[in-house]
Write a structure and sequence with these properties.
This protein is mainly alpha-helical and about 280 residues long. It has 10 helices and no strands.
Length: about 280
């Protein structure tokens, strides 16, 4: 029989490694897109419009997942779109984590005026509908990678702040924190060396979830033409185009939608798997 720790690791194993495998493969494909992609993602050929994938009659050699209505290679556009999606996920997720987790730690452990100011700011910020707020910000700042990242960071830092604040308050009431302070460790040192290590598993889960959310937000913005340039390969833009021709060329919609679904699901399951495996409380 498995003990408690073994049962947790056994449960975390499949989803942890499968998620990591898909994300690792996606990173490799995205980084190698200039060499791996079979075609130029922007090259158009109306004579080759809506070619089916390679296993369907009428396919052309070299167009493995078919073409869209303008004759652009679907596989190449998915690979190049992955570069943008992962860039937004990594940069926006990291910045959101740093800002929100830092403010959450300060509010939850230092308490007092810090907690009052940060908590009220979070309450005010969360009163705005996130999707509408992101669309408004990008519309004001103008389309572009910087605008997408800025919108995600400005909206989602509150998620980290609230959760980390609650965790910091719980950890701050533990005996080990009182022992560290009795031993002469200052408040900042206690927060950084005692509270933070025990909150890191929660932060890791939130970070992976935030990366998945960032991928979704970028797809939504590109779906409504508020991402980068309209002809650039983005998953959301491909989904928007595929939606209009789903009956004539279903592959233009299905393949980028599948890539988006697997990526968001993998980020979510990776975070849960890491928590099950490394959370000191569960262990």
């Amino acid at each position: 029989m498995l003990d408690g720790r073994g049962a947790i690791q056994h449960r975390a194993g499949p989803r942890l490694w499968l998620s990591a495998l898909w994300l690792g493969l996606l990173v490799v494909l995205a980084l190698g897109a200039p060499w791996i992609a079979p075609k130029d993602p922007l090259a158009q050929d109306l004579m080759l419009g809506r070619l089916p994938p390679f296993w369907i009659d009428g396919a052309e050699p070299g167009y493995w997942l078919g073409t869209d209505s303008l004759g652009r290679d679907v596989l190449s556009r998915i690979l190049w779109g992955a570069r943008l999606a992962l860039t937004v996920a990594l940069v926006a997720g990291t910045l959101t984590c740093l800002i929100g987790a830092t403010l959450g730690l300060m509010a939850g452990f230092l308490r007092g005026a810090s907690d009052l100011v940060i908590s009220r700011l979070v309450d005010i910020w969360m009163a705005f509908p996130p999707v509408l707020f992101s669309i408004l910000l990008v519309a004001v700042l103008g389309p572009g990678l910087f605008s997408i990242i800025a919108a995600i960071v400005l909206i989602d830092w509150t998620r980290f702040a609230r959760v980390v604040r609650a965790e910091a308050m719980t950890q701050g009431a533990m005996d080990y924190v009182a022992s560290a302070q009795v031993a002469g460790r200052g408040r900042i040192g206690t927060m950084a060396l005692e509270i933070l290590p025990n909150v890191l598993p929660t932060i890791g889960v939130l970070l992976t979830l935030e990366m998945g959310i960032a991928v979704i937000v970028e797809a939504i913005l590109s779906f409504v033409n508020l991402s980068i340039s309209t002809d650039a390969p983005t998953w959301g833009g491909m989904i928007a185009e595929g939606r209009t021709s789903v009956h004539q060329a279903w592959w233009v919609l299905v393949f980028p939608l599948l890539a988006l679904f697997l990526t968001v699901l993998s980020f979510s399951q990776l975070g849960e798997g890491l928590k099950d495996r490394f959370d000191p409380v569960l262990r």
